[in-house]
Design a protein that fits this description.
With 491 residues, this protein is α/β, with parallel strands linked by helices. The chain has two domains: 341 residues, Alpha-Beta Barrel (TIM Barrel); 53 residues, no CATH class. Helix content is 36%, strand content 10%. It has an eight-stranded parallel β-barrel, surrounded by seven helices. The protein has a two-stranded antiparallel sheet with strand order 1-10. Strands 2-3 form a two-stranded antiparallel ribbon. Helix 2 links the parallel strand 4 and strand 5. The two termini are 42 Å apart. 48% of the residues are buried. The mean pLDDT is 96. It binds flavin mononucleotide and iron/sulfur cluster. The site of flavin mononucleotide (FMN) has 25 residues, from strand 5, helix 18 and helix 20. Iron/sulfur cluster (SF4) binds next to helix 18 and helix 20.
């Protein structure tokens, strides 16, 4: 993973944990409404892919166990991982592109409700993504994938057959290849082919604005049938909808260029989803305060989008940053580029080796800017903030100072899914603090079952402990043995 050159090391800074009484009177543990969604507290587990779905996208027992474990910590909301809206093979990524996925998802919502005694609202993140190929070996790329054009012929100044040109290209140095190949060809050769929303010469890309609203709406309807309390439209990071919002989107069909045009499809998607699911079902989105790539969106763009989404009637706005393909590291041959490997990836999930700004709360000022713009436009839409938040004092002061309405914690919740409950019960000393090592993210990058280095070897050979596919790690954190007197509301 990319790291800032300053290489300053940080330790978690959780501050003081609340007593049970302080927690009970805090803002963090006070209710908030997100449209029809009445959250008992302002705590939120954002979407995280744990790589536990079946190879054909169904809910598995491991998925149920994973979310059950979070639900027992009783966060206000739990957003189930990015889930594909199309009925196409996508490896072990959860899917919702057909009615056959509904029963498994229903089991998932039942599990979360039961484990949280109904306290945790459960949403699902809906994602669309474009095609990305693994990086092919050079000989295969030149033999099978490259289309020989006049540009290549001209480079060799001779009458060579296409096959001879392919052979010659294979022998060139990298510097020469940069010269002879177009930027996209070089990218396909060195990183693997990747589609963009601007590839409007391809029919299926040109037609995305016609197709996506219906796909998202059908997926949202299935989510409603499966018992979710709402959906989060994934407009963040490296995926299709974020690419429509991106300043790099130069489509000239009314869906690219100026911010007003870039937001058109995301609004159309939202409107069609809303028409399909009605007002009683929460619909919000996750988008970026900043793309953190050259020429990418800035907080001003995000503020504009936030106001548009609020005006359209979204029930919440969840803000992330970075996580793009444009600056991803070159993958090894046989692997695909991954959007969390470059500087923008670092900004999405900042690690403990950081710069002078550190890994905690890097997204706060930009999120506050979006929230201020939404409030100034007269909308009360709650704003969800994420990024390095792992302590009560920090979370509470962000809420008290009006920089956010809901606090999302991703990695801290992997490190300790009981941490919300521990705070509420006045047992802050029992919290297993995330050290922001990004070991979990490295597993995610390799599409391996996500676990935390702080607990995945603990008592792993104890009876009943389920292990990862590599047999080395436990899949779930050990139980927190809460004192019996510490039950909340009789649950
Ligand atoms: C293993 C892992 C998987 C993730 N998967 C998703 C995802 O499916 N959708 C999403 O919007 N963000 C995803 N994220 C990003 C988190 O939701 C969150 O924005 C990010 O980790 C920063 O928050 P944190 O500092 O509290 O971890 C993932 C993060 C991790 C560590
Ligand atoms: S592996 Fe554990 S400690 Fe490291 S970042 Fe992930 S959750 Fe935090």
């Amino acid at each position: 993973m990319w790291r800032p050159k300053e290489r300053i090391k940080y330790q978690p800074q959780p501050g003081t944990s609340p007593t049970r009484e302080e927690a009970a009177s805090s803002m963090l543990f006070s209710p908030v409404d997100a449209g029809p969604l009445q959250l008992a507290q302002r705590t939120w587990v954002p979407a995280m892919v744990p790589w536990r779905a079946s190879d054909d996208g169904f809910v598995t027992q491991d998925i149920l166990d994973w979310y059950e474990r979070y639900a027992r910590g009783k966060p206000g909301a739990l957003v189930v991982e990015a889930t594909g809206i199309r009925d196409i093979p996508s490896g072990p990524l959860l899917r919702i592109g057909d009615d056959r996925f509904i029963p498994g998802l229903q089991e998932l919502t039942d599990t979360v409700r039961q484990a949280s005694a109904g306290e945790t609202k459960v949403l699902i993140q809906l994602i669309d993504f474009l095609r990305i190929n693994r990086r092919a070996p050079a000989e295969k790329y030149f033999e099978r994938f490259l289309q020989v054009t006049d540009r290549h012929r001209a480079f060799f100044y001779s009458q060579l057959s296409d096959d001879e040109i392919r052979l010659k290209l294979r022998e060139l140095t990298d510097d020469a290849l940069v010269e002879v190949l177009t930027d996209r060809e070089y990218e396909a050769y060195a990183f693997g082919y990747r589609e963009r929303v601007t590839d409007t010469h391809l029919q299926h890309i040109r037609e995305l604005p016609d197709v996506l609203p219906g796909l998202f709406a059908a997926a949202a309807e299935r989510a409603k049938k499966a018992g979710f309390d709402g959906v989060e439209l994934h407009y963040a990071h490296a995926y299709t909808m974020a690419s429509f919002l991106s300043a790099l989107n130069t489509r000239d069909d009314g869906f690219g260029g100026e911010p007003e045009d870039r937001v058109r499809l995301p609004l159309n998607v939202y409107n069609e989803v809303r028409d399909r699911v009605g007002d009683g079902f929460a619909v919000g989105c996750r988008f970026l305060t900043r793309e953190c790539i050259d020429g990418g969106n800035q907080p001003d763009d995000a503020a504009f989008f936030g106001v548009e989404f609020a005006r359209a009637g979204m029930d919440f706005l969840s803000l992330s940053r970075g996580g793009k393909f444009e600056d991803a590291k070159q993958p090894k041959v046989g692997a695909a580029a991954y959007p969390y490997t470059g500087r923008s990836g670092y900004e999405c999930m900042p690690q403990y080796i950081s710069d002078e700004r550190g890994p905690f709360g890097r997204n706060v000022p930009a999120t506050a800017k979006v929230r201020n713009a939404v409030r100034a436009a007269g909308y009360e839409t709650p704003v969800v903030l994420a990024g390095g938040i792992h302590g009560f004092e920090q979370a509470e002061s962000l809420l008290q100072s009006g920089q956010a309405d809901i606090i999302a914690s991703a990695r801290q919740s992997i490190a300790d899914p009981d941490w919300f409950l521990k705070m509420r019960l006045g047992h802050g000393e029992d919290i297993r603090l995330c050290i922001y090592s990004n070991y979990c993210e490295a597993l995610d990058t390799r599409h391996k079952q996500v676990t935390c280095e702080l607990w995945d070897r603990e008592d792993k050979n104890a009876p009943g402990v389920k292990l990862s596919n590599d047999g080395k790690r436990r899949l779930l954190p050990p139980e927190w043995k809460a004192p019996l007197s510490n039950k909340l509301n009789g649950n």
